[in-house]
Amino acid sequence: MTREEIFEELNEVFRDVFDDESIVVTDETTADDIEDWDSLEHINLLAAVEQQFGVKFNMGQIVTLKNVGEMVDLIESMV
Amino acid sequence: MLTMNLTDFYFLIFFSIVLILYYLAPRKLQWGVILVGSIAFCLAGDHPVLALYPVLSSVLIYAMARLIVRFDGYSIKRRACLVTGIVALIVILVILKYLRFAVGLVNEDASESLSGLLVPLGLSYYTFTLISYLTDVYNGIAVPETNLLRFMAFGMYAPTLVSGPILQYRLVSQSFYAEHEFDPEAVARGMQRMLWGFFKKLVIAERLGVIVATVYDDPLTYSGRYVWLAVVCFTIQLYADFSGLMDIVLGLSQCLGIRLPENFDMPFFSRSIAELWRRWHMTLGVWFKEYVFYPLLRSRVHTALQNRLSDGKDKKAKKRAKRISTYIAMLVLWFTIGLWHGANMTFVIGSGLLQWVYIVLEETLDEPFKKLWERMGVNPANRLLEAVRIIRTFLLFALSMAFFRASSVGDAVTLLGCGFKSVASGTVIGALISGFSEQGMRIMNDVSVLGLTYADIIIAIVSLIILFAVDVYKNRTKSDIRDAIATRPVVLRFIIWFALLFYVILLGRYGPGYSAAEFIYQGF
């Protein structure tokens, strides 16, 4: 899977979780950029990402992810 | 539980000695000065033997962390080390802090026989700091310390034993173990912050505490607006007390060159209770999020519950199921947070279950209100609505803190009930004005119905205005007022800091006459 493909699918997941069709994520996107992305939605988001890509994050990764770029790196290394 | 108080004169002398030794010591051994200082601090308590608790807990967690990294990621032994460490710490915590409470629920006489159990200083705080360390090592996001004594310097770092902040090794260790050169600027900044903490604690919190105690001890006499005044005063007292203590702890650490995490971010400017808890006792919130709430949400039990709730296939049903199961997980979370504050139903309700109710209400009412504003053509982010939200959040929080302060749930209910009775007597301000016109300055030393003299009430009000102004500045500019002062001419800086110093020395309530009250959060 290329990074572009991951981003494409990831955008779908974000739009679905946050109920907002206008979301476009980039490497630098963080929780501050998306209004509803709080600590609670973080877990829902990651569960949806795991389901989409068939991966499993561990707790260390979940609490240290800094932006979408790191999330993509992680997915890239796992799929 | 008794020990040197951080606002004690003796503590300041003790700290000065530590500070001098710290910068005289070889840079590689500065942590050693901290360790010796921390142990001395623990031994200075009434029961020196209690210092064994943090020492042994640190040793155990150190050993478990070293073992964890020996086993690979999927080994059962690795998990066993994590569980052993956490269970041991939790068992100690439960026995020392909660056993009496739990037994008392069933049998009051039996709970009396457990009253001899002594609790070491900082039990709840260092326990959480150590659990965080071990879990992070297990999760592979912290590298374990390989020198036991060095680790103990971190695990029982004395300033944080009094009431936090709760530390995360992975975020603090770099600054904690760095070689610190003496930097007069940093030491001056640290001392300025400590002074600000003393101002909050000694000038404001101690005075408000008198009003609060007067009314809470005798609510039947003080009905009506006096009750609400006391409820609000306690909330501000708690903030001034706890955040003031954090200013002292963080300022003191800054003098040593150590950066600790912030614990407060002007919580009373929050627009919702959920936001308030992200800005109040922040390190506790982060701890519960990372080590309780997230694991809970990702547990098999939670997934099973979610699946069970969403039998429908459509998206809406799934979302609703997710919401409900999250609320249930939050109930567990808030119950635990309440219990952490103390083994009493007042804490479970005040700093736990009520907060849960507030947050669930906020979540469920969010959508209907959004629709309402839309239909009325009102901008939901307009200034008036934002101000109303800030005031509402503060008042809801104050209401919950009435339970937190009361000695029993019954007392809290009685007190709040009295708030709805009318008062016959006049207002404090009315008494002040009429008394002043009749007797001139002499009335200033009279004790008002609030338990404080009129002079003290005026000092409290003036000090609160100063605190409010500084917090508004910080909230608006998102910057530290010390930076702004540092850019002023040296004479002005000198005047500002010395004015504050004399203000605290002259108007702070401390010393033998007052037997400086313990910090409110110290007992937890």
SSE arrangement:
The complex is a heterodimer of chains A (79) and B (524).
Chain A: H1 3-18, H2 39-53, H3 59-64, H4 68-78
Chain B: H1 9-24, H2 30-43, H3 52-68, H4 76-106, H5 108-112, H6 123-138, H7 148-155, H8 158-163, H9 169-177, H10 184-217, H11 225-255, H12 273-279, H13 282-297, H14 300-309, H15 315-341, H16 345-376, H17 383-405, H18 409-418, H19 428-439, H20 454-477, H21 481-486, H22 490-507
Helix pairs in contact in B: 1-2, 2-7, 3-4, 3-6, 3-7, 4-6, 10-11, 10-20, 10-22, 11-17, 13-15, 14-15, 15-16, 16-17
Structural class determined from secondary elements of chain B = mainly alpha
Q: What is the number of domains of chain A? A: 1
CATH fold assignment of chain A: Non-ribosomal Peptide Synthetase Peptidyl Carrier Protein, Chain A
Biggest sheet of chain A: strands, sense, closure? none
The top level CATH class name of chain A: Mainly Alpha
End-to-end Cα distance of chain B, whole Å, is: 10 Å
The quaternary state of the protein chains shown equals heterodimer
Instruction: Write down the overall geometry of chain A.
Output: globular
Strand share of the residues of chain B? under 5%
